[in-house]
Amino acid sequence: MATIEFDNLGHSYHPRPSSPTDYALRRLSQEWEDGKAYALLGPSGCGKSTLLNIISGLLVPSEGRVLFDGLDVTRCTPEERNIAQVFQFPVIYDTMTVYENLAFPLRNRKVPEADVDRRVRQVAEALDLTADLKKRAQRLTPDAKQKISMGRGLVRSDVAAILFDEPLTVIDPHTKWILRRKLRQIHEEYRLTMIYVTHDQVEALTFADKVAVMYEGAMVQLGTPQELFEAPRHTFVGYFIGSPGINLMPCTLGGDQAIVEGISIPLAPGSANGLPNHELPKVGAKFELGIRPEFVELTRSGTAGSIPVQVVGVDDLGTSKLATVRMGSHTLKARLSEDQEIPLDAAIRFPTRWTKLYHDSYLVN
Amino acid sequence: MDKVQDNRAWFLIIPVFLIVAFSAILPLMTVVNYSVQEIFGPGQTLFVGTEWFGKVLADDRLHDALFRQIIYSLAVLAIEIPLGIVIALGMPGGRSAKTSLTLVLLALPLLIPFNVVGTIWQIFGRGDIGLAGATFRALGINYNYTSSPLDAWLTVLVMDVWHWTSLVALLAYAGLQSIPPAFYQAAKIDGASKWAVFRYIQLPKMRGVLVIAILLRFMDSFMIYTEPFVLTGGGPGNSTTFLSQYLTQMAVGQFDIGRAAAFSIIYFLIVLLFSFVFYTIITNTGSGEKK
């Protein structure tokens, strides 16, 4: 197990990168704790696989360093770093049995046969593969094959970290859920450093202690699932996490108030102080007001601090209701409890605690 | 579900059936017809039953040719298959100019007509003007494919290797290119040695194309005719007379049509049998469930 540290890490596939958009992975300095489960979350092409390959050692970054437990491993091979990786599609050795597949990484490292047997049986037990151990791996279903791939990652007890590159893509939804729980259990039992790449927010949020959200090559936020939900540091995080995503409205500033189409919405006191260098807003700088549908309060008109709106539609989701309302030219979503009445003269309120101000897509705080 | 009788299906099958009949079955039946008759001249035939088959099977020269043929085909397979795999492993991957150049260079021998290949090697090996032959002579090696059976054999084998290894290499290369990069990355992470990568990833993934390569090279080499005919004419003596050449001597040289026809049928059955055996062995090894 190891602490993983990124020191001014960046990667570009261009020979001479000039603008930030030339970078597949933009400059990044961070430290990831030992024994925690991390998820790298983002849409395709956001740089998450690039970062994963840099961590695993399959790719040498063009800038900066990677450190495992303080040791520079930037140019080390995956083997030297002692990491394990599970790929998107099952990688199995066709001509071997399940047992031989699981034993392969250990036997290559000349682990005594008694230990090999013990570890293989342990891992097979954890992944429900015991009954298949003597079968030829080629004949199994895709999800059993992917379990073998995972098993080969888990079988080595001394790895610095286990990396998962969208490992559940080929698995059906029900088995997906079971396997994710299994991984979670294994993580809690052995306290392995796990890094899990996915584009599925549910997968990331349920699996990881900390989720790193990537967007256009930049890591826009690293935080616990709760932090990502309650205080998205970038509008992309607000949009990508949560279903539906955050409500965003362009606004201007007036003291501690955000002004949207002439309507003043109070912000938490001192919100605007967090602006870079306390500068006055530059011409062209973009401000946005963001609030999650879960925090929008729907009340009757006339309630203190409320803004009248027009209810356009209500979707009943079974456990909650999702109201679509129009405020001026903006359409907002509000999540309501199942039994809440929708008044005819509806109005909404923005609790200051949950009303966030974004400056050029980044949270002002 | 009720079965519906629909005779329209015949319209779809009949054209294929006709093509196969004219291209394969009818010519083969002609041969069968000849094989049971003594033919003296046009229109003068005599039914002799299985006599030709008995004679052919008892023919010592045919036994020698068959034995030579089997040794030759096995030698071809033993050299070309491993060599082709090694070449494929050493070829550059990806889409680069280097890859294209390698592919073109490899394909060149395959594009040369068979009798031209024979002529090239005939000249190449000559002691007076041939590059190889003259070099050997200058080095003091007594090399002469027209008088030494061993030299003739080696020359025919090397020629076949030169001509056809590319085919095996290209097939093996196609097999290698279809392996996703994740397999190599996973093997690296699992700490697999180069040999283990070959043994457990590359070889199993190449199996399909190797079956094709082995079958093609076996059938082709078993039926080889043109190149040794041009190079050595079957000599010295009968040392490089393979089945096809013996058959041609019989049918065209001696105009022994009935016997040649019986020979052809036996020849055809031998190729079929060997191919079937190879195919069964290769597809069953390694894929069976371990009990």
TrEMBL record, chain A:
One Pfam match, given by its short name, reads ABC_tran
* UniProt GO MF annotations: ABC-type ferric iron transporter activity; ATP binding; ATP hydrolysis activity
One cellular component term from this protein's GO annotations in UniProt: ATP-binding cassette (ABC) transporter complex, substrate-binding subunit-containing
Please report the organism this UniProt entry assigns to the protein.
Azospirillum griseum
Domain (ABC transporter): residue spans on this chain: 4-241
Q: Transport: present as a keyword of the record?
A: yes
In its keyword annotation, does this UniProt entry include rRNA processing?
no
| Protein name as annotated | ABC transporter ATP-binding protein
Which family does the record assign? Belongs to the ABC transporter superfamily.
The protein's UniProt keywords, in alphabetical order, are: ATP-binding, Cell membrane, Membrane, Nucleotide-binding, Transport
TrEMBL record, chain B:
The family annotation for this protein states: Belongs to the binding-protein-dependent transport system permease family.
Organism encoding this protein: Azospirillum griseum
CDD domains noted in UniProt: TM_PBP2
UniProt subcellular location: Cell membrane
User: What are the ABC transmembrane type-1 domain coordinates in residue numbering?
Assistant: 66-278
User: Where does the sequence pass through the membrane?
Assistant: 9-32, 70-91, 103-124, 152-176, 208-226, 260-282
From the broadest rank down, the organism's phylogenetic lineage runs: Bacteria, Pseudomonadati, Pseudomonadota, Alphaproteobacteria, Rhodospirillales
Record-given protein name: Sugar ABC transporter permease
- Alphabetically list the UniProt keywords: Membrane, Transmembrane, Transmembrane helix, Transport
According to its UniProt entry, the protein's GO biological process terms are:
transmembrane transport
- Membrane topology of this protein: Multi-pass membrane protein
Gene Ontology cellular-component terms for this entry are: plasma membrane
Give yes or no: UniProt keyword Iron-sulfur: no
Q: Give yes or no: UniProt keyword Transport.
A: yes
